[in-house]
Write a structure and sequence with these properties.
The complex is a heterodimer. Chain A is an alpha/beta fold. Chain A is built from six helices and ten strands. Classes of the chains: A alpha/beta, B alpha+beta. At the A-B interface, helix 1, helix 2 and helix 3 of A face helix 1 and helix 9 of B.
Chain lengths: 246, 363
């Protein structure tokens, strides 16, 4: 049996370091501990599956890692930047530039084309945009080409299949070349075949870019795409099940 | 902003209902404003045209042209006041008039004057008048003779002038002797002698009103020209009534915009959650809502203006509708301000959207 651990394999640096992270919600007089003293390190380029049942705290942990939620206590360092005490404004900037998200239900902007759904990341930056409009369009075209969507750039999400939509979402997450991409149940809305194709693609894209990823799932069939799997139950991080990436 | 504009362009049907409602409200605002302006301009033209800083009434007239009488003695006192530059006598007589060649009776205000008024030249020859454009709209032409009042006093139209009516009656600008003879022939109960006018239009400098009333020992009541406009019967009441309706309508505009964009924001909660999660600021998202509200308001204003102009053209000439550039500007600014304020109701909702809502049920 593998020794329980949530530490990353030796690497030159960590894409994500969470130390003693705790998240407590209050409901009336009661306190609900969603995440309890979690320590998690994800190395650069590493793919980690976060496995747990509904209500286990995996989504909360992912939200804290992505700067969507502030921890009640503990430290969160992403790409060398400690975001534990970031203001909401700083977290907005952090999310725009340092991490990528792929959501459960895809959530593309329905009235934007595939290309524009990628460009929206640059548009949201306004005057702080790091790319010119031309450079952003080139970047979007490259990404869509790599994701096999070169012929779909002008299509609206409604004209794309579920798998294609998820690929556009992956392109959006990768647009700013983040050090860390967070996936929330990326295949739950897809059938098994398409889901496997999308996971293959995720694995390939992360590996080829050396981008770290945390993939939240409750489907054990998806864990073999990860370098290792971390379980979470009742807010407690458990064992590293295995280094199973293929 | 680009996102908001693209949504407007690609999903126009989402904004159709709000645009249609705002278009009809724009038509209502313009027609109400146009009627107010028409009534105001039609009532006050003769006073606004006076080349005067102040209008001097006899003190017993309670600021009414028709009741006021000023004789030569009182006029001389006024002329001697320091700061007074020019003094001109004015008299007004409200009567009906028949075109000599038949046709319907028209309501006229026979206005006797001495000094050229704004847009009105020197008095025409005795027995002749400069007629207001509104008479031309009723079929009167230069050279026509109008038979005025029960005495059927003949006044020949020498030409036309603009915006010179008095209490909704078409101005007929004549010299003072013609006014007096018409007054005495048709209103023998209000006979005026050759040295009498109703009011004085005075131009000068300093605190004219106080100086004149002091010099006449209280025999006069002097108002600025603007005060004289609002002293006309019904003008203040008309304006306050119409403005109450116009501002109430603007509140409805604000409520429509507020409700519509609140509902739209509610519908977009998930989308805004995702956009916030990927780095959109509340300020940027809210700016998008405001931009959409303003664009909808501008489109509604353009469509509403076209409809209002069409309605104005279709209305009979006796409806006192005046669609002025100023009214269009006021309505445009009011609509845009209402759109911004209405959309601001969504700010709290946009602010409260939690970016964490984009992921599972973490929030």
């Amino acid at each position: 049996m593998t020794e329980p651990t949530t530490a990353a394999p030796a690497s030159t640096g960590a894409a994500l370091e969470m130390h003693a992270v705790r998240k407590v919600y209050t409901s009336g007089d009661a306190e609900i501990v969603a995440v309890d003293h979690a320590d998690l390190t994800v190395a650069q380029g590493e793919i980690v599956a976060l496995l747990g049942p509904s209500g286990s705290g995996k989504t909360t942990l992912l939200s804290i890692a992505g700067g969507l939620l502030a921890p009640t206590s503990g430290t969160v360092v992403v790409g060398g930047v400690d975001i534990s005490n970031h203001s909401p404004k700083e977290l907005t900037e952090f999310r725009r530039t340092k991490v990528g998200f792929v959501f459960q239900s895809v959530n593309l902007v329905p009235f934007l084309t595939a290309e524009e759904n990628l460009l929206v990341v640059n548009e949201m930056a306004g005057s702080k945009a790091t790319m010119s409009r031309k450079a952003a369009r080139t970047r979007a075209a490259e990404l869509l080409g790599e994701l096999g969507l070169a012929h779909r750039t002008g299509n609206l999400p409604g004209q794309l299949s579920g798998g294609e939509r998820q690929r556009v979402a992956i392109g959006r997450a990768l647009f700013n070349s983040p050090a860390l991409v967070l996936f929330d149940e990326p295949t739950s809305a897809l059938d098994t075949t398409i889901g496997a194709q999308v996971m293959d693609l995720i694995q390939h894209e992360m590996r080829s870019r050396g981008t770290a990823a945390v993939i939240v799932t409750h489907d054990t069939r998806m864990t073999h795409y990860a370098d290792r799997t971390v379980t979470i139950v009742d807010g407690h991080l458990g064992a590293d099940l295995a280094a199973t990436g293929h | 902003m680009g996102l908001a504009l693209r949504e407007l362009r690609r999903r126009p049907s989402r904004f159709t209902v709000a645009t249609i409602v705002l278009t009809f409200l724009t038509v209502l605002l313009l027609l109400l404003g146009g009627l107010l302006d028409g009534l105001f301009l039609g009532s006050t033209g003769a006073i606004r045209a006076q080349p005067a800083d102040v209008i001097v009434y006899s003190s017993n007239a309670r600021d009414s042209f028709l009741r006021s009488r000023i004789d030569d003695t009182l006029r001389a006192t006024v002329e001697s006041v320091d700061g007074v530059d020019t003094v001109g006598g004015v008299g007004v007589l409200l009567l009906g008039a028949d075109p000599a060649d038949g046709g319907d009776i028209v309501n006229v205000a026979v206005i006797g004057y001495e000094q050229p008024a704004v847009g009105v030249p020197e008095p025409a020859a005795p027995g002749s008048a400069w007629a207001d454009d509104s008479l031309r709209d009723l079929g009167v032409r230069t050279g026509d003779t109008l038979l005025v009042g029960p005495a059927r006093s003949p006044i020949e139209v020498a030409g036309f002038v603009t915006d010179t009516n008095f209490l909704q009656q078409s101005g007929l600008w004549v010299d003072l002797p013609t006014w007096r003879s018409t007054q005495n022939a048709n209103r023998p109960d209000s006979f005026v002698t050759d040295d009498v006018v109703q009011v004085l239009a005075v131009r000068g400098s300093g605190d004219l009103a106080a100086a004149i009333d002091a010099a006449t020992g209280g025999a006069t009541s002097t108002l600025t020209r603007d005060e004289a406009v609002y002293a006309l019967p019904g003008v203040t009441e008309q304006e306050s009534t119409f403005n109450a309706i116009i501002y109430s309508t603007l509140l409805v505009v604000l409520a429509v915009v507020g409700l519509f964009f609140s509902l739209l924001t509610l519908e977009r909660t998930a989308l805004y959650g995702v956009l916030k999660a990927i780095g959109a600021s509340t300020r940027r998202l809210f700016a998008g809502v405001v931009v959409q509200a303003v664009v909808v308001a501008v489109i509604a204003f353009i469509a509403g203006s076209v409809l209002a102009l069409a309605a104005g053209a279709a209305l009979p000439a006796n409806v006192p509708l005046q669609l002025t550039v100023g009214r269009f500007l006021f309505t445009f600014v009011a609509l845009v301000v209402a759109a911004v304020l209405g959309s601001a109701i969504s700010l709290r909702r946009v602010t409260r959207i939690d970016p964490a809502s984009a992921i599972g049920s973490a929030s």
